[in-house]
Amino acid sequence: MPNRSIKKKTIANKKIIRNYSGIFKLAVIILIAAFAIFMIINNFFPGKKSNNEFMFKKDGTLTFSDSAGNTKAKIDIQIANTDFDRQLGLMFRKSMGENQGMLFIFPQESVQSFWMRNTYISLDMIFVNTDKKIITIHKDTKTLSDQTYRSTGSAKYVIEVDAGFSDKFNLRVGDNINWTR
User: Fold this and answer.
1) Quick one: CA torsion of 108, 138, 56, 177, rounded to 10 degrees?
2) Nearest to 119 by CA among 51, 53, 49
3) How far apart are CA 150 and CA 125, in angstroms?
4) Chain centroid to CA 99: how far?
């Protein structure tokens, strides 16, 4: 009898060890997967801070000028010229410097339409045609909104700057832009 009891305990202990071994393996797999996802996200969004705010990355400088060529303002720009960058835009950012903005470059000139979903900063949106002339300005856009802001004509470029920028620097339809990388 005592021999059977020891055998049963041994078998039971082996089952417990196998169960814990399976749980341990699963936990290791989950940890490895979580680490891999973390690394992919951090590498996919290199301009992202650890507190989940995207950071400005200077790609060039943009100048606003009047029709006579007089400079009205200069800003550092981050360029959005891929589908992903254009769709992400300034979403999820909590702030942007007064001398900073985003330049969206589209493959073709057409009527452009933007919204403010997941955008925490009120913006001025400046729509520009292929001649680099401002055709539409939407001021003080509503944050976290699906309201659409459209260009009044065909635009190839859109510049987003902090709300109030257009008034501060007296930007008008017909003014020009130019940028350098």
Assistant:
1) 60
2) 53
3) 9
4) 18
- Classify residue 175 by burial, with Cβ atoms within 10 Å: 0-12, 13-18, 19+: buried
Q: What letters, b where the CB count within 10 A reaches 16 and e where it falls short, cover 123-138? A: bbbbbbbeeeebbbbb
- Written as tens digits, the pLDDT of the chain (181 aa) is 556 666 666 666 666 666 666 677 776 778 777 766 766 665 555 454 444 558 899 999 999 999 999 999 999 999 999 999 999 999 999 999 999 999 999 999 999 999 999 999 999 999 999 999 999 999 999 999 999 999 999 999 999 999 999 999 999 999 999 999 9
Residues forming a β-bridge with 80: 104
Q: Does residue 114 contact residue 90 with C-beta atoms inside 8 Å? A: no
At residue 24, the 3 state secondary structure works out as helix
Domain limits, the chain: 1-44, 60-180
Return the CA Rg of the chain. 27
Assigned CATH class of 60-180: mainly beta
Neighbours of 118 (CB within 10 A): 13
Q: Which residue has 């009044």 as its token pair?
A: 152
How far apart, in whole angstroms, are the C-alpha atoms of residue 117 and residue 8?
Answer: 63
- Token pair, residue 29, equals 């797999």
